Structure formats: structure tokens, C-alpha cells
Amino acid sequence: MHEIETFKKEHLRLPDKIYILDTTLRDGEQTPGVALTIDEKIQIATKLNNFGVDKIEVGFPASSSGEIDSARKIKSLGLDSTIVGLARTLKFDVNAVIDADLDYVHTFIGTSRLHRDYKLKMSKEDIVQTAVEAVEHAKDHGLTVEFSAEDATRTEGPFLFEVYREVIDAGADFIDIPDTLGILTPSLAAFLITEFKRNFKTPLSVHFHNDFGLATANTLIALECGANQAHVTVNGIGERTGNCSLEELVMSLKATYGYALDVDTTRLYSLSNLVGRLTGVKMPVNKPIVGENAFAHESGIHVQGVLNNSSTYEPISPETVGHSRRIILGKHSGSNAIRSKLKDYHIDLTDEQFNKVFDEIKSLGDKGKSINDDELVSLAVNELVAARETPILLKGLGLSSGNGVSPTATVRLEINGVEKETASIGVGPIDAALNAISSLIQEDIDVNLEEYNLEAITGGTDALAEVFVITSDSKGNVSTGRSTNQDVVMASILAVLDSINKLLLIKKSTFK
Ligand code: KIV
Ligand code: ZN
Q1: What is the DSSP-derived secondary structure letter of residue 283?
Q2: 269-278 b/e with 16+ CB inside 10 Å = b?
Q3: Mean pLDDT value of segment 401-427
Q4: Which of 49, 198, 245, 419 is such that its CA lies 20 to 30 A from the CA of 479?
Q5: What is the tens place of the pLDDT at every residue in 139-188?
């Protein structure tokens, strides 16, 4: 067995049951600038429930009647997840949780000297008494009680232990340690949790903030040291730099620790997107698990590896979290990646054509641009068009008009090697010619002329006409065509055929 695997087996011990308490709707909503409507909270709570978190902290009912309403509505959905309401250690706050029909309260009070002296202006004794009274009040009303000593990690050890001992005696069912300012390191977290587990038998929870980017690491080590529950938020949103991220914690537990957590990880990406959309807090592209680059590859060596076996450069497969793999074409791309993409689109280029596309991608990359799939198809189609591998060629054109007769165009086309001819009338010779083309190609493609621009690029009676057109097909493919000719009808026909030929090549290549 691999050395790391042996180490994992021997040293990584986790509790039999790890509870996940998601606080996206409470601490996450405290992200500066975020406010969710009741309907939005319901959408997120439902998705969290379907994903499988044990508990959802839905808000702070005492803070507004809207918060009571949304908590009550979410509770009335009858979800499997336990619905939790936040409360200061005040009867008023606990009563608001009861008013919202919830049966689980998360009650807290600041315990550090800074909070005692500058925020609460309370003595240690008053803090203990207030905490105990709130827990007793909640227990008297049949609630399950989780207690947090806010700013626990900056609270003097003996006082912190005294507070927890007292609330446990008063009936607290869970004790939670908030690292309110995210100042823990993994080794400090390990020390703290080990001490707590030595002193208390009550189930232990952790609520770690991310001010130094350590929230997930600290939460993992806390669980390794015996913590029974982790507070998390989707996308790691929350006060300031946020909380331990749900997706990072869950996937670390499942994929790196091999822990059997009963959640549906395939819902993670869409959960992250929903929260990003409703909160307006967009994820950086390099956000672990759910960022747009989490499964994106550009460099030739990586793409080659991933195409042969995705595990070479992906620790988990994108499908595991409902995400998808992206091969990005840019300055670091190798020819294999480009060939493989073209193959996906059924585009067959000669070596010479391929090298031109390859060089173009590299030169765009040097200008700081990467290429998406549509742009690749368009580059390849341009090469096919330039090589005259065009399905439709103009073989003949005859025009007649005047003497009260409608303008008529007779058009002869070679379509995939077969010559066809027809005559059509129109409001003018260009219209008649385009009608004839439409009727000749109707079996092959259904084309709309979206835009037609005619410009004379030199003056005089022998002026050159330049025609630019945009056409589309019934599948929504769009392409441009351009032609310059002394004959305006001829320029129009050739521009339209140029555009239709590209549409046919796109259609053939993408099977849209
Ligand atoms: O970070 C914190 O201390 C909190 C408390 C309300 C538990 O969110
Ligand atoms: Zn918090």
C-alpha cells in the first residue's frame, strides 16, 4: 500500500457521525451587501436539504418579522434537515425562535475580554448567568439547544471552560466553538479541540471563519481531533472573508479522507451556482471544487494526460460534484488538445489546414486571448472555405427584367457535386436571384438572410460593390459572408453563397 494511504488508515480517525450544520442563510447572509428574500431562502434551504445537510441555520428570527416569517415558512416545508434559528442569550431572542415554530436554537454570547468590555459591558459573572438563563429558558420550552461562546478563541481558557461547563449543566445539547475572527491555525485548533474533548462529553461543534484562508483546514483538523459537527456555508460566504466552505469540507472528507458522508455531492455545483446567483457573490475561477477552472485544462502536457486518463490531473472527476471538464485552447495548448476538440466536432482538416488553425490559436494566445469552442469551429471552417472545400458553387446566372415582366433570375448551382438549375422572380434582380438560391438549396439547409449590407468601395460607373451578409439556419447557427464584384447582383449572390457554405460546414461539423 502507498505510504500516504497507510498513514491515512492508521492516523486519520474521524467520529462515526459528523453533523453538517449549514449557515449560508444566517452567517452567509451576513456577507456585506447580501440580503435574501423569503422566496430565495426557501430555494436555497430546499437545495441544501436535497443535498443532505443535517441542519440548516435559516436566520436570526429576533432581528425582524421577515426573519420570523422565512424561518416559519422553511420549517413548514417539512424538510429532513433540522431547521435552526440564531438567538442572543436573551429570552426575547429565544422567544422569536419559538414564534417561528422552530425546535432548535443556536444561542450565543461574546465571552472574550474585548467583547465583555467594549461590546457587552458585562462582567464575567453576568455573562455566565445570562447564558445559563437563556439555555434554561430554551430547554423549558422544549428546544434543542446549541450554545456558542462568541470569540471563543480569544477568550481566557479558564473562563471559556467555566462558561461551557455552566451551559452544559443548564442543559445545552451541543456546544459550539466559534473562531469568530479566523485566528486559529491547524495546530492551535487541534490543541483546543483535544482539550475540549478531554473535558466535556457533550457533542462538540466548530464554527471557523476564514480570515487567513484556514477555515477548512482548521475544521478538518478539529474533526480529526473529535469534533462532532462542522458549521459551513455554501461557497464559504459569510462575515468578512467568510466561513468554512461546504463544498471544500465535504469533498475533502469524502475524497481525501474517504469518509462516508451521506450527501449527494453531484448537487454541489448547482447549489453553488444558485447561492452565487441569489447572493450576487460570484466565485473566483480558481475556487476549489466549484470554480470555473476547477476542472479546466489548457497546458499541452496536462491536456494530453487528462485525455488519456482524467485522473492524471484531476483529484476527483467533475461529475462527482455536478461540474464539467473544460479543455481550454490558448497559448499553452498542444496540438493533441486541438485535434481532439476538432474530432469532437467531426471536423477533418488536412495537416496544412490544421497547422494554420494551430498557428492562429498560438498567435491569439500570445495576444492574451484564449479560444472557446465556437471560435475554434469558426477558425477551422474558415480554413475549409479558403481551401474551397465548399459544398455549393455558382455555375451560372441569367437575369431578365423590363417591359412589365417581373425581374427573373435563372441560377445554376453545383451542390455537393450535382448541378441544379431554377428560375425565380423577385421584387428586383437581387431578390430574384436569392429566391432562386433558396429554392435550389432548400433540401440541404433552411437559411434566413439576417443582414445585408452593400457598399461601393470605389466611385464611378465601374465602382466595385462590396456586399456583406449575415445568414442563419433553423438550428440557430449564424455565419457571415462577404464578396466584392463589379456586378452588384453577382457580389450579392457570392456573399450569400459564401455565408451559406460556412453554415453548411458548421452544420456538418457540429451535427446541430
Ligand atoms: O462567528 C461567530 O462567532 C458567529 C456566532 C454567532 C456564533 O457567527
Ligand atoms: Zn460566524
Answers
A1: P
A2: bbbbbbbbeb
A3: 88
A4: 419
A5: 999 999 999 999 999 999 999 999 999 999 999 999 999 999 999 999 99
User: Residue 388 — very low, low, confident or very high, per pLDDT cuts 50/70/90?
Assistant: low
Pocket test for ligand 1, best of 209, 233, 237 (most atoms within 8 A of CB): 209
- For 293, half-sphere exposure in the C-beta direction (CA atoms, 13 angstrom radius) is 8
Domain 15-279 has CATH 3.20.20.70: yes
Query: Phi and psi at residue 349, in whole multiples of 5°?
Result: -110, 150
Task: Tell the CATH topology of 296-386.
Answer: Recoverin; domain 1 (1.10.238)
User: pLDDT tens digits for 241-289?
Assistant: 999 999 999 999 999 999 999 999 999 999 999 999 999 999 999 999 9
Query: Quick one: pLDDT band at residue 511, thresholds 50, 70, 90?
Result: very low
Please choose from 30, 160, 180 the residue to mutate so as to test ligand 1's pocket, defined by most ligand atoms within 8 A of CB.
180
Least confident of 147-161, 204-218, 453-467: 453-467
Query: Domain locations in the chain?
Result: 15-279, 296-386, 392-508
Q: Which ligand is nearest to the CA of 244?
A: 2
- Closest residue CA from atom 8 of ligand 1: 27
Kindly give the distance from the C-alpha atom of residue 178 to the centroid of ligand 1, in angstroms, as a whole number.
Answer: 6
- CA 150 – ligand 2 centroid, Å: 8
Residue-wise pLDDT for 129-140, tens only, equals: 999 999 999 999
Name the 3-class secondary structure at 330: coil
CATH number belonging to domain 392-508: 3.30.160.270
Mean pLDDT of the chain: 91
How far does residue 92's CA lie from ligand 1's centre (Å)? 19
Residue 215: pLDDT over 50? yes
Q: For a pocket test of ligand 1, which of 60, 84, 207, 219 has the largest count of ligand atoms closer than 8 A to its C-beta?
A: 207
Q: Which residues contact 302 (CB under 8 A, 6 or more apart)?
A: 312, 313
Is the backbone of residue 365 left (phi > 0), alpha (psi -120 to 50) or beta? alpha
Asked if residue 301 lies in contact with residue 332, where contact means CB atoms within 8 angstroms, the answer is no
Contact 110, 151 (CB under 8 A): yes
Tell me which ligand sits closest to the C-alpha of residue 177.
1
User: Ligand 1: distance of its center to the CA of 103 in Å?
Assistant: 20
Average pLDDT for residues 426-436, to the nearest whole number?
A: 89
Residues with CB under 6 A from ligand 1: 27, 108, 148, 150, 178, 180, 207, 209
* Proximal ligand: closest to the CA of 87: 1
Query: Taking a C-beta distance cutoff of 8 angstroms, is the pair 463, 443 a contact?
Result: no
Give distance in angstroms: CA of 156 to centre of ligand 2. 19
CA atoms within 13 A on the CB side of 370: 14
Whether the pLDDT of residue 399 is over 80: the answer is yes
